[in-house]
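Appendix B. Chain record.
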Amino acid sequence: MLRHTTHITVQLENSYYQSGDTLCGTVSLFAEKDVRARGVQLKLRWQARKTSGTSHHSDEGVVNKVVLELPNHNLRAGFQRILPFELTTPDGPASYHGSTFEIIWTLHAKLLTGNPLAASAKVHFELSPSSTRPYWHGPKFKLHHSRINLVNITTTSVITLISLLFVLFGLVFIELFGDELAGFLIAIFFAFLGSFGLYWQHRALLAKMTFTTLISRLSTRTVSPGETLTCNLKFVSWRNLRVHRVRVDLHAIERYTMSSRVHSTSISPMPTAGGKGRVTPSRTQLTTKTKTVFVRTIRLWEDEKLKAFEPLTAALELKFPEDVPYSFAAANNQLLWRVVIRFYAGAMPIWRKVIPIVVKPKNT
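Structure tokens predicted for this chain:
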């Protein structure tokens, strides 16, 4: 085991800072023997890492890097050298301690001796965004993200084609065997299967065509803790409907990426060392999971009768608590806020609309 003959410690005046503050501290060096070193490198580093589990992917970034020079590039044995420093804290991201991942800030100090295994030390601190320097997300942030699912498109196309063939087959049966009861019943059966398949596969489209318009407007897409978000809803239908309820959810989710080893056994023509001729290759499979960390629900219009072409309107106020976390998004870890509107009416499928929003620090 490598034993360092040079000892390095880092001390900060405080453990909590706001963005834009001056981070003050000292680096203490003590060498058991003479060491040639150019200085000490300081790095401010954030990391979004797991709070539980072993296969959680992490994100990290370095936002500030400075070098404290040593006089004569020499550290004498038996003498302690103290180097003071001052750094300006960055805009963010803010420290966060969630259920699946956390965002932590550290100050790294490393002795520059040319050896990659040189002595180093680090200290943690909490960072809160300043109201005058707003920062609410990390790199690669996107409000809107759409992905085409080729499996769903293929499934929809196949079911639609089979349903149309059933309907066509039923019409042919009626033309050929319409005079016979058995042929007529078989034709009706195939026509029913085809029609039901078309309805089931495209029921969501039929549900959307039921409304002439569905308007949902937010007073703003960016909000701060303690503020109120106003949501205006307006529904208009082509026909009379019985509305079971409308549900509006304000919630935050943690989205994180995990990796797992997948093993698949195949038979090899050449025997292996065990003599069984089986090969078990493995590959890494990435999965994205989500967990809800905040929910606020409002229900309205329960058992309401909606008349044709008569608008049904409502204005909702969504209050954000003072201690809610800020939005954050990186490659493998995200904290996303959104408003979800669900409309339950008749025997139709649930109509659902998702509106992404951003929670940021307060502005002065």
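Further analysis of this model is presented in Appendix C.
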